[in-house]
Amino acid sequence: MKELIKRTYLQYQTFLTYAFWGIFATGINIVTYFLFANILHLSVITSNIGAWILTTIFGFITSRHRVFKSETTGFKNIWHEWIQFASFRGTSLLADTCTMWLTIEILGWHALIAKTLANLIAALINYSTSKRIVFKNQNRSGEDIRKRLINAENK
To answer: Where is it chiefly localized (predicted)?
Structure first.
């Protein structure tokens, strides 16, 4: 059983690490949204964009260092990675904002339910684009995973 857990973890390590840090990012997103909306009394869209900016900065740092373990060096290369990351997060911002607008303004849902749904949709988009495009050179190949599994079995 212990070996099965270890092998499963190694096989899904990137996704599990992304999910772990994603929980924190979701918390930042929801808390900052509610601060902007309820304390600063900003509109749904403005609050959502403000929360997105803070969450995107946090997401880049954690995705780069903790999830995909980017080895990119040099300001120009890291800047390119950031621009790519933020650009794809812009796609999820569009989906997030449309979800918020539709569910709150049109359907009259409670903001917490709407924000939770919007975060789930955004997380799927973000993981896919980060793994397949932004940090693709950092992703482990199938051969690398097999080697780690064999090493884990031999320990």
So the answer is: membrane
Query: Hey, what's the torsion of the CAs at 39, 40, 42, 45, to 10 degrees?
Result: -70
* Lookup: tokens for 124: 């799927």
What is the C-alpha separation between 152 and 133, in angstroms, rounded?
A: 29
Q: What is the pLDDT of residues 24-71, one digit of tens each?
A: 999 999 999 999 999 999 998 999 899 999 999 999 999 999 988 888
Instruction: List C-alpha distances in Å: 17 to 104, 110, 121.
Output: 31, 30, 18
Q: Give the distance between the most distant pair of CA atoms in the chain.
A: 58
Q: Which residues of 93-108 are buried (b: 16+ CB within 10 A; e: fewer)?
A: beebbebbbebbeeee
CA dihedral 116, 117, 118, 120 (to 10 degrees): 90
How many structural domains comprise the chain? 1
Q: In terms of residue numbers, what domain contains 83?
A: 2-154
What's the CA gap between 60 and 39, in Å, rounded? 27
Could you tell me how far CA 99 lies from the centroid of its own chain? Answer: 17
